[in-house]
Design a protein that fits this description.
The protein has a single domain, classed as 3-Layer(aba) Sandwich (Cytidine Deaminase, domain 2), CATH 3.40.140. It has 4 helices and 8 strands; from the N terminus they run αββββαβαβββα. The structure holds zinc ion.
């Protein structure tokens, strides 16, 4: 993520979060990411991913893991800083989770915000409380570095850190 953020600075970039929802453990694992793709358009405020390329990457990962890894959310960069979800970010999260063929149980957005010389990473979901114009508020999720358990070791073999 950071490498991609630096590559595109000062314009915005992002992509997909790929992993799985571990309902039993009550957490969501982000095992890898997919970048914006070669034909993505990057702007100061926002970017348009190369959707066809992303779907192809996602399909490859899905097949290679017998469907254990799939799309769990999006991520993007705030090149000018601002560690929080904008109105537009909340709209994106709501649209993604509401999509008819989305199998997501919860909205998830990763954010990499520039702060001085480094980047700060956070994860957000949508809350229940609705602001004017019908958009739910954004709630920051507690995160930890994931250490694969024996049962989750399959992802290491893919070499997709
Ligand atoms: Zn944003």
């Amino acid at each position: 993520m950071t490498a991609e953020a630096r590559r595109c600075h000062p314009v915005e970039t992002g992509g997909m979060l790929v992993g799985w929802d571990d309902f039993e453990a009550g957490h969501l694992v982000v095992a890898t990411i997919i970048g914006p793709g070669p034909n993505a358009e990057h702007h100061t405020w926002g970017f348009t991913p190369d959707g066809a390329w992303q779907q192809e990457q996602l399909a490859q990962i899905y097949l290679a893991t017998d469907g254990r890894l799939s799309f769990v959310g999006d991520w993007h960069v705030h090149p000018a800083g601002g560690f929080g979800m904008s109105r537009r970010d909340r709209r994106t999260m709501a649209a993604t989770v509401d999509e008819p063929d989305s199998r997501l149980a919860v909205a998830l957005m990763g954010l990499l915000a520039q702060e001085d010389e480094h980047y700060r990473l956070g994860m957000w979901t949508l809350g229940d409380r609705r602001w004017p114009f019908g958009l739910p508020n954004a709630v920051r999720l507690p995160t930890t570095i994931w250490t694969p358990t024996a049962g989750e070791a399959f992802w290491v073999r893919l070499g997709i850190a």
